[in-house]
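Title: Prediction job returns without error message
Component: structure pipeline
Severity: low
Priority: P3
Assignee: unassigned

Description:
Job completed but the reporter wants confirmation the result is attached to the right record. Sequence as submitted:
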Amino acid sequence: MRIFIVLFFTVVFLLGNVMPVLAEDDFPPLCACTDPLLQEGLESSVGNLGLEEAVKQKCLCIALVDLTDLEAPRLAAVNGNEMMYAASLPKIAILLAAFEKQAEGELTLDRADRETLTCMIRNSSNRAATEMMNRIGKEYLADLLQSARYRLYDIDLNGGLWVGKEYGKRPAWKRDPLHNLSHGATALQVARFYYLLETGRLVSPEISREMKTILAKPAIHHKFVRGLQAARPGSAIYRKSGTWREYHADSAIVEREGRRYVAVALAKDNKGGDWLRRLIVAMDDLIFQPAQPGTPRVRISFAGDKPR
């Protein structure tokens, strides 16, 4: 009898400390989680920041997801499925592909490789990104993004994450099928990447945690990071940004005081970096100071502002 009791509690302990590999169906699809109040708040914030014309011209794309309750995320987006050149932001796809290929037994990542991946993300090293992309294989990366498992680039949703060029002077080897972009993204697919990461569905729960660690401690302090450090000190930021000429992109998981959210913004304007610095503070307010039903708001009509 004593042996049975010991075995019973041992099994209970082990089951309670093993994180299961979760399937897509264990959580709601992000596109089905639009929250009307959060959507209204995001649109109002964009208007208050004077950015409504940028949204109407499809020069600004945004996704905001409250992940405080992982089983009941709240989504808001404007131009969420519009694909834009995203510079270095799609390096998160290379990060995923490296760990996915290792899990398949086709690639070994040693300590030096992990340092290279960390430099690619935190410092946005083009050399590191190109090195890892070539080790992974360009076709493997493109196939993974379009795979049935991840669907991070989905023709039915106007595209998504795409890396069709080394981060250097060589020409693109394969631009995305819909928009002819070498490095592209949609705000909703980037938000979905972070949702999958946070719910342990990128490769495995253990690898998802490791990738999140690599996304921590950003070394480039602009856009989202600059805005949060100035206005919301104490925020934990897991982030990847991108900049090229007038294109400005940022994406992050932000955690503070028991709340957690994903913010993504893509901009095409010389002032885009400043837009994103101000926008992240407004989005943070929507998560930490939620409006109550009936609160007067500025309602602005945006073309193409609803998630598909």
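Comment from assignee: result matches the submitted record. The chain is about 40% helix and 20% strand.
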